Here is the input.
Amino acid sequence: MATQNRSNTPRRSHRRVHAAVDAVLDVASQKHANSLEEIVYAVGESRRRDIKVTVDDLAPGVWGQRREYDSYDEIILAKSLPSEARTLAHELGHIVFRHPGNTTDSATEAAEDDLIAYMLGLASSDSDTDTDTEPLSASELALQEWEAEAFAAQLLQRLSHLDRSNTWRPMLRYDEAFG
Here is the structure.
């Protein structure tokens, strides 16, 4: 879980983000990944839990989404993104940091219940579905978004410094050797 301070609220850790990016680039090098999408697949393979990437219509203002299934994760990217790479890296960050998310079934059920209640004009006093986990606090959600965004920014920055040819492997090894 995220680093905690004395008041027991989550706090940002640049060291944690750096370590995560280093680990992902190491996996990319070992698996001979030559694109960001191949890096995503390599991370899934190294976790022994596939990651699928699809493009689909998402709600207005939603650029990407991570969904958990019993045996794999899925990253869904909106059709018209300003930066597909940034969104893909951000969602990969959520997976790498193992941020808890709803399984697809419970997320869908919650959305359907809320939508039905809204359309019927009913105030939903219990909008949470029956889950085993407590809802995340606003500070925990903010930390997760910060970690995913910091991860994406650093990963893309490191990749942009690598060899612009179609293979990153030699430069990943060089980067690994010199830190």
Notes: The chain has a mean pLDDT of 79. Helices lie at 14-30, 36-47, 84-96, 104-119, 138-160, 169-178. The two ends are 25 Å apart (CA to CA).
